[in-house]
Amino acid sequence: MTRQNALRARGLHFSYDRCEVLHDVDVDLPWGTVTAIAGPNGAGKSTLVEILAGVRRPQLGSVDRPDEVALVVQRPAVPDSLPVTVREVVAMGTWSTRTPRRERPGRAARGARVDESLRLVDLADLASRPFSTLSGGQRQRAMLAQGLVRGAQVFLLDEPAAGLDAASRARTRRLLADAARDGAAVACVTHDDASIDEADLVLRLEGGRRVG
Ligand SMILES: Nc1ncnc2c1ncn2[C@@H]1O[C@H](COP(=O)(O)OP(=O)(O)OP(=O)(O)O)[C@@H](O)[C@H]1O
């Protein structure tokens, strides 16, 4: 993390077994910007995002990231058998232990933040539904709301080619642009031309190498 970049990765190499998926990839995500991560199927985009988020370790290379990173995927690791509601998943964003106890907002303020985020991602009506019953796109929006509640400094989204309708994609684009305007660094894997056109920066991967 530097004054200019929220996240900085250097020389990332990653292989599944012996199959190389990322080769010497550098990434800078500046504060206050949206970066589109583009490239053909199988280029290594999802693997890169998982490494940037810290849920996967590169065999070589380093990632400097701030404390609060939100990884927004459609299939988060919440077991379907776990009876959590949408609201509870979003409220997990208030569990930060990094803020000293006396500086943490009170219960009512936390509840208001959760309500506001649910409304922003258009899930207020589904707040008491079990999380496991949501569609992929709805789960993704719930995870985004969790990151908003947490006040994440970096948002990493893995948006598959299909799965979100046009209105939902437009809404997500707006929310991400707002998060960047508030100072966060946002990176979004996308096959969507509008997302690529509207991004401040584009990172292109092909065959596991950066080509742009
Ligand atoms: N768990 C895994 N085990 C083995 N190989 C994998 C695994 N996950 C991905 N791969 C392979 O790694 C390569 C990169 O996959 P990755 O999902 O990172 O690409 P992607 O650019 O996100 O693709 P898409 O646009 O299709 O989502 C592909 O060849 C894929 O088959």
Automatic annotation (TrEMBL):
Keyword ATP-binding: yes
Domain ABC transporter: from-to ranges: 7-211
InterPro entries the UniProt entry points to: AAA+_ATPase (IPR003593), ABC_transporter-like_ATP-bd (IPR003439), ABC_transporter-like_CS (IPR017871), AztA-like (IPR047748), Metal_Ion_Import_ABC (IPR050153), P-loop_NTPase (IPR027417)
Record's keyword terms, sorted: ATP-binding, Nucleotide-binding, Transport
Superkingdom of the source species: Bacteria
GO molecular function: ATP binding; ATP hydrolysis activity
The family this protein is said to belong to: Belongs to the ABC transporter superfamily.
Protein name: ATP-binding cassette domain-containing protein
